[in-house]
Amino acid sequence: MTQSLEDYLETIYNLIVEHRIAQVRDIAKSLGVTMPSVVKAIRELMKLDLATHEPYGGVDLTVKGRRAAKSILARHKLLSNFLTKLGVSQRMAERDACLMEHILSAETLDKIRLFTGKN
Fold first, then answer.
1. Has this prediction a pTM greater than 0.85?
2. Is residue 118 a contact partner of residue 84, using CB atoms and an 8 Å limit?
């Protein structure tokens, strides 16, 4: 899965948790992209059996999609907490964690988890 699709999954999950529904316009606003870009990404997520979408309705995640989104969010939180422990500002830690969560290996993430005591 691409970094972009991971960002969409994470955003959709967060919107569902916060508002009980993820609308295309809200996803677009959260990610700073156009609504046609969101629709295209949703189609890709649907092909991967990660999301569902009714025309003119909300976007939802499948069980597989929720599992993937929770995993992405857990990586993000781990990295954000790690960076703030290093003294990085919260704003910068969030930004950097978003970039790092896509590229770090499972081994590196495991070592960070062990180092921070986050099991």
1. yes
2. no
- Average pLDDT, rounded, for the chain: 94
SS3 string, 43-86, reads: HHHHHCCCEEECCCCCEEECHHHHHHHHHHHHHHHHHHHHHHHC
Residues 64 and 119: their CA atoms lie apart, in Å, by 22
Contact 96, 79 (CB under 8 A): yes
What angle (nearest 5°) sits at the alpha carbon of residue 102, between those of residues 89 and 114?
70
Give the residues of the chain that fall short of pLDDT 50. none
Cα gap 79→74, rounded to integer Å: 9
What local confidence, expressed as pLDDT, does residue 117 receive? 84
Q: Could you tell me if 49 and 64 are in contact, meaning their C-beta atoms sit under 8 angstroms apart?
A: yes
d(CA 74, CA 59): 21
